[in-house]
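dumping the sequnces here before i forget
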Amino acid sequence: MPVNPDSAGRRYRLTEPYLVNRQKLREFASAVGAKAPACFDVAAARALGYADLVAAPTFAVVIAQAAEREYVADPTAGIDFARVVHAEQSFHHHRPIVAGDQISAELTVVSVAERAGLAMVTTRTDLSDAAGQPVSAVTSTLAVRLGAGG
Amino acid sequence: MSAPAGPATAIGPFELRVTRGDLVRYAGASGDFNPIHYSDDAARAVDLPGVIAHGMLTMGLVIQPLIDWAGGDPGAVLAYDVRFARPLAVPDGAAVELTVAARAAAPEPGRMTVNLTVTSAGQKLLGKAQAVLDPSRIPSGRR
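..and the predicted 3d for all of it:
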């Protein structure tokens, strides 16, 4: 199944804001080997000036990938998830995510390009808070292997 | 505004270990249940050598020693970019070792750029890995 080049420019939104909670932040921080007390201990986070637990810097991808699943699940996008490998990833944080945030996400398909048996799909997901202020821009390039008959 | 234009600072190296159990834990924590990260059959069906780590697990792991070095404020990371050069195969029953070395450029106003070199078994895993830190969130001894 080919990746649909016409999906460039499309936008996908999370159907409801992502509610960031302490337990998920701790679970994610443990999974990436974080040691920083501000990821686990509310008093430590507050001592650094944050309202609550601070997310590990790559936690934003959890919310971005939730928006990405809306895109991948779109049958007209033509993306076979099992054939996807990650090629590039970037985060630009306006501020750290903290527990208690309600994060909205809008994904834009930036480009779809084929090269050497791979479809390179670049998306940018803009995260914003309940006040509509920007939180993070998460850019991802996926390489979709276009193996025959897959 | 008058940060001394000192030489680049070498940070590390740090050694990290990744197991299948770490992949399962990351899958649950992140919600990324692509079967290539837990099933050898699924991985081989798409021409991978076997189960590979989530790229985002590698990216998430290797920044942690830098955060700790920089004083332990995760919010100090303003930007973080990587290019994945090759997949990290994680066989069942054995830990895979990663080595992380970093070089911090002399701080500029409002930003300190750090380049990471991440290798496993002598091969570079990341073609580019760069973090931008906020100097105001790093203790003065580190910037």
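Chain B touches chain A at residues 16, 22, 25-26, 28-32, 34-36, 42, 45-48, 52, 54-57, 59-61, 63-64, 67-68, 72-75, 77-84, 87, 131, 137 (CB under 8 Å).
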